[in-house]
Fold:
Amino acid sequence: AYNKERSLDILSGRGTAAENEFAALNAGLALYVADAAPSPLAGRKKALEILQSGAAHKKLKELIQVTNNFN
Structure:
């Protein structure tokens, strides 16, 4: 339960500074590797913006809704 709440907080832009930074660095590297960002730092910046806007949490909710429709 704790990990779920922490993850949801991070995806909603309400994680601690360290949690948000860790998530943004990982996501930023993924964006860079996927050619969705010109550099790891640009990917990190983009990821932080997505986390802080709540868009990541919104996308997770959409994914949950879609997968629930398969049952």
Q: What stands out?
A: The chain has a mean pLDDT of 94.
